TrEMBL record:
Topo IA-type catalytic domain segment(s): 427-881
SMART domains: TOP1Ac, TOP1Bc, TOPRIM
Name assigned to this protein: DNA topoisomerase
Superkingdom of origin: Eukaryota
GO molecular function: DNA binding; DNA topoisomerase type I (single strand cut, ATP-independent) activity; zinc ion binding
Keyword Isomerase attached: yes
Toprim domain mapped to chain residues: 296-411
Species name: Trapa natans
Length: 1106
């Protein structure tokens, strides 16, 4: 059992011996209100008449606990206070102070009874029943059964005597909740009010902020406010019980004195006093329009840029202040989300946030309205909620202040003023979704990451979405590893066509082989050079005629307007921007820029959206521009409306578009930097195109047969009849988006279309040329940023607004790398992904993660209870953690060795895996205990100390391949001119290398490292042939008969003799290095010796591998 101390009782003195309940169950731990664990009971001394304060969810739990607790080994009296949160129960019940009877351990086994319980009955089914309260569900722990408990006569009389001495008649529950040292007595009904003694102020700076959230109410802590505060967003009203005592009033007056001291602290403990915020997400409140202004208002936004722009729109009656993002966040340490305490959370307030909150508090002192205008999404709703919680904690919300939430999707004067005319309350469903998402991410990350540190040294973290994204990249890499390339040939046949003159013009047109020997041709039908030559000879000796043609019209619809994910994809594909950079530029365009006329304005609508619709007013403006710029034929006749089935209707915002479509990209030259202008142009062109008519094409296809009809060919071509939406992309305004790739000229395309259109059935054709082309099947492509974002969106994993940060984390952790525009998994990332796939299947399961995302969307829609979702997931996930914690590192190594054995040992020449040092052991995969990566070593360690090179360790040999962890498919560079064997470019765990010939059993192909090349992907056949020439044995050294070898390293050519290495000067070509020159270099001053430096003990043997 875990119980929590009320605020102020950080010191607890208990009787010696364990604390038990009636069934003999130990109470495992006792927490202070800040979540700090008290000292073990065995270490606590017992003092007479000390205080024990326990916090329960309601008074009935308090009664049950009091009824069933017993102290073994107690030697004197203990006075407890049973205090429940005032927001959940009857203040009369909660206001009761239960006094322990003067019992000794010998009396009734130390069992404590309260006179308040003498007539209560506890049922076995966990329901408490009496005439006053009816049937009320009560708390049950560990299946304990509670029976009827009556106060013994002797104790009842003693309790009655204590009640007769009671002199208080107040029922002020707020004062009781503040009580630090109660000294009063009670009457028979437990409704007495005793004297209160306030303890000294706690001026120690706390680092944690704890807050709990109920399903129907958001409960945050108030470490400063002492009296009960109930806040409705239409106005703040402090309610006090009618019978408030003088001491309660004095306590209330002291709050303002302590608030300034609390603001100076970096963080504050918030679990003590509860503050209830009434928030309604199902109906719009009766808030009055806030524009035109009727009094001074404080409007809070997230950034200083946005604040400056909006301040210019609203004037002096509004003070616009920035919060600079979140004012508090989950503490980045263990225990910040507590499943055992109903998923309470520990919040941390960064130091700068206190300064920002103080500015808001000062402004609110003379304001009538607090307007929260954070971003219109789940995260923005949470920021507003955090601000309210913190302002309540500082007691900065005076009586009758109106608190309102407004949202806008673009930063323009009209949009801001319209939003102020439609204020609403904070949406609790969105806040719950935020809390659920944060709790899930925290629980997964902070439970898996420590396991990774211990089981996979060097691996740093895992996360709910990042682990699935990593799994996608690693699974694709595994497909590439297992892919086997197949050879195939294509045949292209060119015929001469004639264009009517004068003069008559002959133009060749291409056709593709579709049938041969009366059989349909597919991609792999022609699989060898011999087959392709036979096909070519047959075609060259045949005559061909036109069998027929068909033509049709095609309509190509315009693209949909941008949402977050499609903007990231297009920016990656067309502009080569990564997702993080794209969102950074979009944020700047949204928040506002200073135009040439000195006016600041937001250029695009909110960029974190998954909604496709565009407002009717914006559509009218776009249509007007289309008519003006392209003509009335280009405007959509039906009026295009785009809809997407959005699970989270609260976040179904408008699509991304310019705030003013008449603001052409050319108008922003000199205002925006080059990249910002490109992104704005991309958004502008897409917004215009989506409201235009489809492009119309004429397509023609001609079927060609040999005279014996054994060979079939097909030729097709299309021609644009009406540009439609494509007119936008030919507009000079979008010139920055033009592709640099060469395209077929329109003239050549038109000629080919004209020739095919002129052909008729039965026309004989003149063969021009037959071309053969060799191809190899290709593995699935690696992900680019655009394609990965698209895949995540298709699978329903994560939110588009989080994709950029997810990919950044993976790159920062060195789990993946971006080479060119392709994601390559580092071996460290592959190890993490394999570990999670084996031991945390739900974390990397695409379907499960997508379902979890759906559940989170259901929370934001009010369809799923957020704590229930967390409880269900935690029940399963905690079992995974327990099993993984019991794994031995060697078990993890064996799993990784089995998974990646073909990769890890691919570079060992004979792949026998026998230890080359002791010949008895077997080479095995081992993780470094110092976080350096992994290495391949002998399993007879420590008797045999042989190791291969570590992945991240220092290279012994100058010509050793560069460290690399990616394993690519073999790339055929061509055939060797002498041996006619294939020359392949491969990648192993230690870098790229060239291989001559295929892998065959019992045959070791010749290999050469490409470490000296800057980019192995650009290697040519000539380069590969040159690399395969080395090493060259020049002869034997005259002194010892050992070979003298000319080798190629990553820094140039070297001469090797035993362990002696001499570099070949850069001005000396390899052809000039003969035996005589080599001996001169080996006898020079610059000779060095290879191998590990001498140290204590014998250095382990090493093996050089490619």
């Amino acid at each position: 059992m875990n119980f929590q101390l009320r605020r102020g009782f950080s010191s607890l003195y208990m009787p010696q011996g364990p604390l038990l309940n009636q069934s003999g169950t130990h109470i495992n731990s006792l927490y202070t209100s800040g979540g700090e664990l008290c000292r073990p009971y065995s270490q606590l001394k017992f003092y007479r008449r000390r205080l024990l304060c326990m916090k329960f969810a309601n008074s009935l739990q308090a009664q049950k606990a009091l009824h069933n607790f017993s102290f073994s080994g107690a030697t004197s009296n203990v006075l407890p206070i049973i205090a429940a949160p005032r927001l959940y129960c009857n203040p009369v019940v909660c206001g009761s102070i239960f006094k322990w009877p003067n019992l000794s351990p010998s009396v009734n086994n130390g069992r404590c009874y309260s006179h308040f319980l003498k007539s209560q009955t506890f049922k076995k089914d966990g329901v408490f029943s009496n005439e006053k309260h009816g049937d009320i569900s009560v708390f049950r722990r560990e299946g304990n059964l509670y029976t009827k408990g009556k106060l013994p006569k002797s104790l009842a009389a003693r309790s009655k005597k204590s009640a007769d001495d009671s002199v208080s008649n107040s029922k002020d529950n707020e004062t009781i909740a503040e009580t630090q040292q109660p000294t009063s007595k009670q009457d028979d009904n437990g409704q007495g009010q005793g004297k209160l003694s306030r303890s000294k102020k706690n001026t120690k700076k706390q680092k944690s902020v704890a807050s709990s959230v109920d399903n129907n109410t958001l409960v945050g802590g108030s470490g400063v406010s002492a009296s009960k505060t109930k806040v409705n967003l239409r106005g703040s009203k402090k309610e006090k019980s009618p019978g408030s005592s003088a001491s309660s009033k004095r306590a209330s007056n002291k709050k303002s004195e302590s608030s300034s001291e609390q603001m100076k602290a970096n963080s504050v403990e918030m679990q003590g006093q509860a503050v209830k915020v009434t928030l309604n997400s199902l109906k719009r409140s009766n808030l009055k329009p806030l524009y035109p202004p009727s009094g001074k208002s404080v409007l809070v936004v997230e950034s200083i840029t946005k604040a400056k722009v909006i301040q210019g729109y609203l004037g002096d009656m509004y003070e616009v202040l920035p919060s600079y993002g979140h004012v508090r966040d989950l503490a980045a340490r263990s225990g910040s989300v507590r499943p055992d305490e109903d998923f309470s959370m520990v919040w941390e307030v960064p130091s700068p946030a206190w300064t920002h909150l103080k500015s808001i508090s000062v402004a609110l002192s003379s304001a009538e309205n607090l307007i929260l205008a954070s971003d219109p999404d789940c995260e923005g709703e949470a920021i507003s909620w955090h601000i309210i919680e913190m302002l309540h904690q500082q007691d900065s919300l005076h009586d009758n202040i109106t608190i309102a939430r407004v949202v806008f999707h673009e930063i323009t004067e009209s949009s801001i003023k319209t939003a102020l005319q439609s204020p609403r309350e904070i949406d609790t469903n969105l806040v719950h979704a935020y809390l659920a998402r944060r709790a899930l991410d925290y629980l997964i990350g902070f439970n898996i990451s420590p396991l990774l540190w211990r089981k996979l040294p060097g691996c740093q973290s895992a996360g709910r979405v990042q682990s699935v994204a990593l799994s996608l990249i690693c699974d694709r890499e595994m497909e590439i590893d297992e892919f086997k390339a197949e050879e195939y040939w294509t045949v292209e046949v060119y015929f001469n066509g004639s264009l009517a003159g004068p003069p008559v013009k002959t133009v060749p047109f291409k056709s593709n082989l579709t049938h041969f020997a009366s059989n349909k041709i597919n991609k792999l039908s022609i699989s060898s050079h011999i087959q392709s030559r036979d096909v070519k000879e047959k075609i060259s000796s045949s005559n061909f005629k036109v069998m027929g043609s068909k033509s049709n019209k095609m309509r190509r619809s315009p693209p949909t307007p941008y949402i977050t994910s499609t903007l990231q994809q297009d920016a990656a594909n067309k502009l080569h921007f990564n997702a993080t950079y794209t969102m950074k530029l979009a944020q700047k365009l949204y928040e506002g820029v200073q135009l040439s006329d000195d006016n600041a304005v937001g250029l695009i609508t909110y960029m974190r959206t998954d909604g496709l619709h565009i407002s009717d007013e914006a559509v009218r403006e776009i249509n007007s521009l289309i008519v003006e710029r392209y003509g009335p034929d280009f405007v959509s006749k039906t009026g295009r409306k785009y809809f997407k089935k959005v699970k989270n209707v609260q976040e179904a915002h408008e699509a991304i578009r310019p705030t003013d479509i008449q603001r052409l990209p050319s108008m922003l030259n000199g205002v925006l930097d080059e990249d910002s202008l490109k992104l704005y142009t991309l958004i502008w062109s897409r917004a215009v195109a989506c409201q235009m008519e489809p492009a119309i094409f004429s397509q023609i296809q001609v079927e060609i047969r040999s005279t014996d009809e054994s060979i079939g060919l097909s030729s097709s071509c299309s021609m644009n009849d009406f540009l439609g939406y494509q007119a936008v992309f030919k507009d000079p305004e979008t010139v920055v988006l033009k592709s640099e790739e060469k395209e077929e000229t329109e003239n050549g395309h038109a000629e080919r279309f004209e020739i095919l259109n002129s052909l008729k059935a039965g026309d004989h054709l003149i063969l021009s040329v037959v071309e053969l082309a060799l191809h190899f099947t290709e593995p699935p492509p690696r992900y680019t940023e655009g394609s990965l974002v698209k895949k995540l969106e298709e699978l329903g994993i994560g939110r588009p607004s989080t994709y950029a940060s997810t990919l950044k984390v993976l790159k920062d952790r060195n789990y993946i790398s971006l080479k060119g525009r392709l994601f390559h998994p580092e071996f460290r990332g592959r190890m993490v992904s394999a570990f999670l796939s084996h031991h945390f299947t739900e974390v990397t399961d695409y379907g499960f993660t997508a379902d979890m995302e759906t559940e989170l969307d259901n929370v934001s829609a009010g369809l799923t209870e957020w704590k229930g979702l967390l409880k269900d997931y935690w029940a399963r996930f905690s079992l995974y953690c327990e099993r993984a914690a019991n794994l031995q590192i060697r078990q993890v190594e064996k799993m990784l060795e089995k998974t990646f054995g073909n990769i890890l040992f691919a570079a060992i020449p004979d792949k026998s895996r026998s230890c080359p040092s002791c010949s008895e052991g077997t080479l095995a995969f081992k993780a470094s205990r110092y976080g350096a990566g992994y290495f391949i070593g002998c399993d007879q360690h420590p008797r045999c100390k042989y190791i291969a090179k570590t992945l991240y360790g220092e290279e012994e040999e100058e010509d050793a391949p560069q460290n690399s962890t990616t394993i690519e498919e073999p790339k055929l560079l061509g055939l060797h001119p002498v041996s006619n064997e294939k020359i392949l470019l491969k990648k192993g765990p230690y870098g790229s290398y060239i291989q001559l010939g295929e892998d065959r059993k019992g045959y070791i192909p010749k290999r050469a490292s490409t470490a000296q090349l800057k980019d192995a992907e650009l290697i040519t056949l000539g380069d590969a042939i040159e690399l395969l020439r080395y090493p060259i044995t020049l002869g034997k050294h005259p002194k010892d008969g050992q070979p003298v070898v000319l080798k190629l390293s990553k820094v140039g050519f070297t001469i090797r003799h035993g362990r002696n290495i001499a570099s070949v000067p850069k001005n000396v070509t390899p052809a000039d290095v003969a035996m005589e020159k080599a001996l001169d270099l080996l006898s020079g001053k610059d000779v060095r010796r290879s191998g590990r430096p001498k140290g204590k003990g014998k250095a382990p043997e090493t093996m050089e591998v490619l």
